[in-house]
């Protein structure tokens, strides 16, 4: 056991004014009188009365605190940096009986007592072998408890007898910080040993989340020719992808890429890892800032989501390296919050709208490897074969005009936008598909003199990164422009001719 910096007496005084737990979870706030400390587990209510106590945190980071669940029997002690994560995963943390909303059970106890509770009070909901029977006679919802050697799983069983639907989801109840990630599948069996195997590879997540697998009564009848009894077998497997992911992620510090943390950091709505700012409901269930505007009530407890920031979690996550959200499809990048967002916007493993989606009503989602082929086969007419373009000025009649071309250069594709408005001609290019490579290229526009007077108008601008919007001409210096009157003398036969080229080079 680690030695603490401070005596037991002093430690006992380092308690939160609101929850009475140790001041071991940051940020720590102190009131204007200096006599009330609030810990990071609690919400500071009147923000004007409190300031963050950075100097306390500076010292307290070296103090070894007991786990907040020590009252329930946890013997762990550690410094605040590790403790915040431990308390999230601690096997001594309390929860309500999962069947509370489906029965009159009011049990509340620690995670490691859950198994005993099911054995004593919900014997019928305790499944040893992962198997349970279903029928479609009555609607019902209940949680079954299932455990493997080291792990606990809650199986949510739902029968909708009116529509003949069976749904099931499996929740992995984390008990240690570095617990593994699991897949589950369902096998539907009949009593007389004929069975079909229906595997759905779905991840299980911490208690908050669920990913349902549903079957209709009809489907089961078709697959198993009207069985008398239907047995569902839940099969849990360790998630293989996750292992290789760990190997790929550059290790900054072992605990930083810990998957159990990221299990806890999955937003219950979108399943993406939550990045700051992180919000929470009045009961403390967290939600990411992208989902927050979309919902009014917490998806877990149906409580109100106010603009409450979860500073404890935000503080904790600044220490983490997030795997890119495309890590499941092969991206090896892991970066701190604040940097990973930009990477994800440009990640080569992401899939993106077709660059001609709006013009062509194309609904294809494409990744980097598919995008060039898609354009060359599906939107071939946009490819600029000879780099000279003629624009008949009649087309500009109503004062606004815009068109797109695709330019191929250096085995890459570029989207050229040409527009006319406010008596001005505009050009800009973007490298198609997100990549940092855009800085290597520039656009050159040569206005061709159709008057025979050997005039020359020429401009060069850097290539822009790929954007989802069509706003090519909003930031000065990112596009080429010529006023109509500047190149009026070039125009004969009511035609503007220009050459568009992509060239190598960065502009400093
Ligand atoms: Zn507190
Ligand atoms: Zn603990
Ligand atoms: Zn119960
Ligand atoms: Zn979300
Ligand atoms: Zn909630
Ligand atoms: Zn990535
Ligand atoms: Zn397309």
TrEMBL record:
Entries under SUPFAM superfamilies matching the protein: TRAF domain-like (SSF49599)
Reactions mediated catalytically: S-ubiquitinyl-[E2 ubiquitin-conjugating enzyme]-L-cysteine + [acceptor protein]-L-lysine = [E2 ubiquitin-conjugating enzyme]-L-cysteine + N(6)-ubiquitinyl-[acceptor protein]-L-lysine
Oxidoreductase listed as a keyword: no
Source species: Sitophilus oryzae
Domain SIAH-type: 62-123, 319-380
GO terms for biological process, alphabetical: proteasome-mediated ubiquitin-dependent protein catabolic process; protein ubiquitination
Xref: Pfam families: Sina_RING, Sina_ZnF
Gene name linked to the record: LOC115891313
Name this polypeptide is given: RING-type E3 ubiquitin transferase
Classification via PANTHER family: E3 UBIQUITIN-PROTEIN LIGASE SIAH2, E3 UBIQUITIN-PROTEIN LIGASE SINA-RELATED
Zinc-finger listed as a keyword: yes
InterPro entries, A to Z: SINA-like_animal, Sina-like_RING, Znf_RING/FYVE/PHD, Znf_SIAH
Family listed: Belongs to the SINA (Seven in absentia) family.
Molecular function terms from GO: ubiquitin conjugating enzyme binding; ubiquitin protein ligase activity; zinc ion binding
GO cellular component: cytoplasm
Keyword tags: Metal-binding, Transferase, Ubl conjugation pathway, Zinc, Zinc-finger
EC number: 2.3.2.27
Pathways per UniProt: Protein modification; protein ubiquitination
């Amino acid at each position: 056991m680690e030695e603490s910096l401070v005596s037991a007496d002093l430690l006992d005084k380092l308690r939160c004014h609101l929850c009475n737990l140790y001041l071991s979870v940051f940020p720590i706030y102190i009131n204007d009188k200096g006599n009330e400390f609030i810990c990071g587990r609690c919400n500071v209510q009147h923000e004007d009365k409190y300031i963050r106590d950075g100097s306390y945190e500076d010292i307290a980071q070296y103090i070894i605190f007991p786990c907040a669940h020590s009252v329930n029997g946890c013997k762990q002690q550690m410094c605040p940096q590790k403790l915040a994560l431990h308390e999230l995963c601690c096997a001594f943390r309390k929860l309500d009986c999962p069947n509370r909303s489906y029965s009159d059970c009011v049990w509340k106890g620690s995670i490691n007592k859950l198994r005993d509770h099911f054995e004593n009070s919900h014997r019928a909901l305790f499944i040893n072998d992962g198997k349970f029977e279903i029928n479609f006679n009555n609607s019902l919802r209940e949680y079954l408890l299932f455990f493997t050697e080291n792990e606990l799983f809650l199986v949510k069983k739902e029968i909708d007898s009116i529509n003949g639907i069976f749904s099931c989801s499996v929740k992995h109840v984390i008990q240690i910080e570095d617990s593994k990630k699991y897949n589950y599948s369902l096998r539907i069996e009949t009593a007389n040993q004929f069975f079909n195997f229906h595997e759905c590879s779905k991840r299980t997540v911490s208690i908050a989340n669920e990913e349902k697998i549903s079957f209709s009564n009809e489907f089961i009848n078709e697959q198993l020719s009207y069985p008398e009894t239907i047995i569902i077998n839940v099969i849990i497997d360790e998630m293989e992808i996750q292992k290789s992911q760990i190997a790929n992620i550059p290790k900054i510090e072992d605990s930083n890429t810990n998957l159990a943390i990221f299990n806890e950091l999955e937003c219950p709505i979108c399943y993406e890892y939550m990045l700051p700012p992180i919000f929470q409901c009045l009961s403390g269930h967290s939600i990411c800032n992208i989902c927050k505007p979309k919902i009014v009530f917490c998806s877990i407890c149906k409580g109100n989501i106010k603009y409450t920031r979860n500073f404890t979690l935000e503080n904790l996550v600044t220490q983490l390296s997030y795997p890119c959200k495309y890590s499941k499809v092969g991206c090896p990048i892991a970066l701190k919050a604040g940097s990973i967002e930009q990477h994800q916007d440009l990640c080569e493993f992401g899939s993106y709208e077709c660059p001609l989606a709006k013009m062509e009503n194309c609904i294809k989602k494409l990744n980097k490897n598919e995008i060039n082929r898609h354009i060359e086969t599906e939107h071939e007419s946009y490819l600029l074969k000879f780099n000279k373009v003629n624009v008949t000025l009649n087309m500009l009649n109503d004062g606004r005009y815009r068109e797109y071309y695709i330019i191929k250069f250096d085995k890459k594709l570029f989207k050229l936008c040409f527009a006319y408005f406010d008596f001005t001609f505009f050009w800009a290019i973007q490298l198609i598909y997100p990549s940092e490579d855009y800085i290597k290229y520039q656009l050159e526009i040569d206005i061709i003199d159709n008057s025979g007077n050997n005039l020359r108008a020429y401009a060069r601008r850097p290539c822009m990164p790929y954007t989802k919007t069509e706003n090519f001409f909003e930031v000065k210096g990112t596009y080429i422009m010529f006023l109509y009157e500047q190149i009026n003398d070039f125009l004969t036969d009511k035609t503007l001719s220009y050459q568009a080229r992509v060239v190598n080079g960065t502009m400093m």
